[in-house]
Design brief:
elongated, IS_Transposase, 3 helices, Nucleotidyltransferase, domain 5, DDE_dom, alpha/beta, 6 strands
Length: about 140
């Protein structure tokens, strides 16, 4: 804005971010390309403000990040919440490739339980591979 001769205060920019960030994010979601129906998920831990936090990402077959979640715990509730969030934003996958982690395995199986409970005739195929982090999953 300074290049255009407009003098702005930082507080004004902060108010603009608060006012327009939601609309911009919604428009970006609306324009987002369709996601692949085959997902890969993994988990790792990262330090956030010096505290160990688990990062759950969902990546489609083309390598595009679909969603991610940070969690203080690595348990069934966190894995289920992550899958529910990712499905809510990207639709239901046909296949999910995961490593052999016990906590993450529960998430897609919980989603399959919901599908059965509501009378759906299909479920998410879950493929478990030991070496997901090494790029051998397909």
């Amino acid at each position: 804005m300074a290049g255009r001769g407009v003098d702005l205060d930082r507080a004004t920019l902060d108010r603009w971010v608060e006012k327009f960030a939601g609309a911009i994010a919604e428009e970006a979601r609306r324009r987002k390309a369709p996601t692949g129906r085959s997902w890969r998920t993994d988990e790792t831990y990262v330090k956030v403000k010096g505290k160990r936090t688990y990062l759950y990402p969902a990546i489609d077959k083309r390598g595009n990040t679909l969603d991610f979640m940070l969690s203080e715990r690595r348990d069934e509730a966190a894995a289920t919440a992550f899958f529910a969030k990712a499905i809510g934003k990207n639709g239901w996958p046909d296949k999910v490739v995961i490593d052999k982690s016990g906590s993450k395995t529960v998430g897609p199986f919980d989603m399959n339980g919901l599908l059965v409970m509501y009378g759906w005739r299909w479920s998410i195929a879950v493929r478990r591979t030991k070496y997901l982090n090494r790029g051998t999953a397909g």
